[in-house]
Amino acid sequence: MERLLRRCRLRNRLLRECLAEGLGVFVLILFGCGSVAQVTTTHEEKGHYLSINLGFALGVTFGVFVSRGVSGAHLNPAVTLSLCALGRHPWTKLPFYVFFQILGAFLGAATVALLYYDAIQAYGGGVLTVSGPTATAGIFSTYPADYLSLWGGIVDQVIGTAALLLCVLALGDKRNTPLPDGMQPMMVGAVVLVIGISMGSNCGYAINPARDLGPRLFTYISGWGADVFRAGGGWWWVPLVAPCAGALLGTLMYELAVEVHHHPPEGPEELQTSCEEATEVKTSLELERGGRDGNKFSCKM
């Protein structure tokens, strides 16, 4: 078995990172959309809105644990875009990360649909619908509330994703309040949880283009049809564009308000100079102490 696994080992670093991203998003969708499916198809008898919040929060947490050691666990094209804008991630990797994030979300949605196939069919009476009292497309992707305007939805996604990036950057800022290494995924999940609790009623807090587009493409080809793109007045593009704008806004807010004001870390030359100065001071003190001890010894003799 070990030999077989060795043969499966990939040498291409980018491919390893992309597979880790895809698997991390797969875990996110499996637990997140799986919780929506359970709440929806049981008519909220086996879960409520908070169950969905917890499902996505824990899905993010374990998705980060799955992929962070290989790819950094972006799990979100808006996060990858922001890190590229900060110069912390190569722009050349952006399209590959985004593709595998969407692919992971697509496969996660397919797995949830397989898992809840009978329940979805029973709930919808054998009909797959996007809107109405027995709609099931909302299990997989986000759709706006009836009262929400298009601009209201854009504002919702911009603010929600800005809050996400602001908090995520703070959690990763070692010069602010450094966290123990294993705590970061749990705190990122907590950020998603509080966003869902406080900003979820308007349109389902997508705050992640891959989380919305991948499952939407799955529903499009799996029986729900083109209505998944028509519903909500052509809502589908809002969870793609607005989170990217919000992520850049949140990144700018944190950088200008906090990170840019940190004292710059000492460079190698400054550290070397400080070490040399400390050594000289220590040597002087030892010589001075040795001289005093010698004088005392002479007096006693």
H-E string: HHHHHHHHHHHH
Q: Largest sheet at a glance? A: none
Span between termini: 79 Å
Number of strands: 0
Shape: globular
Regarding quaternary structure, how should these chains be classified? single chain
Please give the count of helices: 12
Radius of gyration: 26 Å
Mean pLDDT: 89
- Based on helices, strands and strand pairing, what is the structural class? mainly alpha
Unreliable segments of 5+ consecutive residues: 273-288, 292-301
Give the fraction of residues assigned to helices: over 70%
How much of the sequence is in beta strands? under 5%
SSE topology sketch:
Elements: H1 2-7, H2 13-41, H3 49-71, H4 77-85, H5 94-115, H6 117-123, H7 150-171, H8 183-199, H9 209-224, H10 227-234, H11 238-257, H12 268-300
Description:
The protein is mostly helical. It contains 12 helices and no strands. It has helices at residues 2-7, 13-41, 49-71, 77-85, 94-115, 117-123, 150-171, 183-199, 209-224, 227-234, 238-257, 268-300. α4 packs antiparallel against α5. It is globular and about 60 Å long. Mean pLDDT is 89; it is low at 273-288 and 292-301.
